[in-house]
Amino acid sequence: MKIRAAVLNAIGAKAPYATSKPLAIEELELAAPGPGEVLVRIGAAGLCHSDLSVINGDRPRPMPMALGHEAAGVVEQLGDGVTDLERGDHVVLVFVPSCGHCGPCAEGRPALCEPGAAANGAGTLLSGGRRLTRNGETINHHLGCSVFADYATVSRRSVVKIDRELPLHEAALFGCAVLTGVGAVVNTAQVRAGASVAVIGLGGVGLASLLGARAAGARHIVAIDLSDAKLDLAKSLGATHTFNAGNADTQEQVRELTKGGVEYAFELAGSVRALELAYKITRRGGTTVTAGLPPPTATFALPAVNLVAEERTLKGSYIGTCVPSRDIPRYIELYRQGRLPVDRLMSGRLKLDDINLGFDRLHEGKAVRQVVVF
Q1: pLDDT at 174
Q2: From CA 371, how far away is CA 374, in angstroms rounded?
Q3: For residue 113, is it within any domain?
Q4: pTM of the full predicted structure?
Q5: Same structural domain for residues 105 and 201?
Q6: How far apart are CA 193 and CA 158, in angstroms?
Q7: Is a pLDDT exceeding 90 seen at residue 293?
Q8: Can you tell me the distance from the alpha carbon of 224 to that of 228, in angstroms, rounded to the nearest whole number?
Q9: Is the bond leading into 64 cis (omega within 30 degrees of zero)?
Q10: Distance in angstroms (rounded) separating the CA atoms of residues 101 and 108
Q11: Residue of 33, 90, 179, 336 with fewest CB within 10 Å of its CB?
Q12: In which domain, by residue range, is 221 found?
């Protein structure tokens, strides 16, 4: 079938993207789902910094590629062997398909699925196949999803069924921002009620972490960013204290406020400087969690003796250490109860034709989560 999709033909474009137009809206041919795959009509797709990092070259991927990895939609067709979904089911897409039988999957850690990671790096679906072409030329998939398009063929392992009553433009955020941000707090760090927390980097994922910390019952929720507007939003979402990272004394102020540092610090900016700050404001015996994705060449140095003498923990978190089939329904239920006001993270809706302008806003820090609505 013919579809319209946002295609990235080369990495390394320079802003403003509304001028350089790295994403071309093109007509592609989408193949029907193969065994173990489904065809999804995309309802809405979120713009994420992970997409931007492919556009600017920080996260190299095979080109050309149909971009987009955070979305929700409706099942339109089932491939052979898919018996647990029906046409018309609403689903959230997940950007790491889990095979279910590799070592990490067997340990209950599907976010670290080895075949899923290999497929994502190669630009294929979990099966190793590609379902997109342009005049006979093969187009790569982005993280098994490629959802900046009106339709997507994906692995059954890349979708989680949800309640049809949830609007798709709201459901889309649960596939990346909410899974990653909330999951980093409740799964990776396992923050307990009464703990002190700091969140550095207030994009969609960072603010979702803030919401997760509030839902977990943290007593101190310290929000840190370079944008005063985002700090104001964080305050309205439950941050108890806010600090601008551009101030030279932020580290000392946070440590003084929390009497030696926070028990849990979360770095969600994808910046080594942000990670350094997160580590420095973590107290003795505390845990620093990073879920940002800096360029592969970025390195982080720390005094090794501190890990021992202060019993410090430094942890990575990918997709919030989640089990998508378990966590997405849970987080949606918390949203419906008013305990995870995810809808307040949305800063605008876009048409697919305006996607380059949307990435300008994201690059400039003027947006939290924009959603392309189909």
Answers
A1: 98
A2: 10
A3: yes
A4: 0.96
A5: no
A6: 32
A7: no
A8: 9
A9: yes
A10: 10
A11: 336
A12: 181-318
